Amino acid sequence: MAIETGKGLAVVTGASSGIGYELAKCAAQDGYDLIIAADEPRINQAAATLKEFDTSVDAIEADLSTEGGVDRLLENIEASGRSVDLLMANAGRGLGRGFLEQDFAKARKVVDTNIVGTIYLVQQVGNLMRSRGQGRILLTGSIAGFMPGSYQAVYNATKAFINSFSFALREELKDSGISVSCLMPGPTETEFFQRAELMDTSVGQAKKDDPADVARVGYDAMMDGEGDVVSGWKNKLQAAVANVTPASMLAHQHAKMAEPGSGKN
């Protein structure tokens, strides 16, 4: 159970490493107590490190692709006796290769993690925030949501959903005292590409953004109440181009980046 020491409570999912860990670090540096969650034991190591910022940190190991896993996180939030001031719904999963060759259970896990678990958590915590008339929500979308993801078809489609969902929710809550922001990073130096079996692709082997920089951009946007932010000038340019490029051409371009073996010389 968290003991109140900071100026508020931040909940961060997918916080064992990468962008999620860095988002939690931003909140800790800003004086927020933390409840962090991920589906792996390493979340406890992350918590131990974050405590160095002299803040209270509770770590929850739970499968956030399931309602049961999200309920476990919600139970811990309730047990803390605290109101959630910041919700950073960052948990996500990717999957490379052609769709017909993918293990369907893995593809389903991408949908359940990126969409189902995320919107269930946002609805539950969002209602708690609305009852207080205040709160900030940050969803981790992606510039991948702007383009059909050949060889990442399911992943890109889930991020298109999150990008769209965040704007819709922001409009619904515009007079509620709750801000909704969407962080749209490009390729970032995390374990995502290894876990998604994309290391033999051009995008898997290319230089990527620093997760600390990406997280700081997203955190600041949330705190400023911005609706969306694309991190990095190259990603901003890519997002702008995607908005005026035919979908068929985008799908062809994405295939060059994500097709298995495209990273071989």
Automatic annotation (TrEMBL):
The keyword Nucleotide-binding does not apply. Keywords: Oxidoreductase. It comes from the Bacteria. Pfam families: adh_short (PF00106). The keyword Transmembrane does not apply. InterPro entries: KR_dom, NAD(P)-bd_dom_sf, Sc_DH/Rdtase_CS, SDR_fam. Residues 8-190 form the Ketoreductase domain. One of its GO terms (molecular function) is oxidoreductase activity. Coiled coil: none annotated. Belongs to the short-chain dehydrogenases/reductases (SDR) family. This is SDR family NAD(P)-dependent oxidoreductase. It comes from Ferranicluibacter rubi.
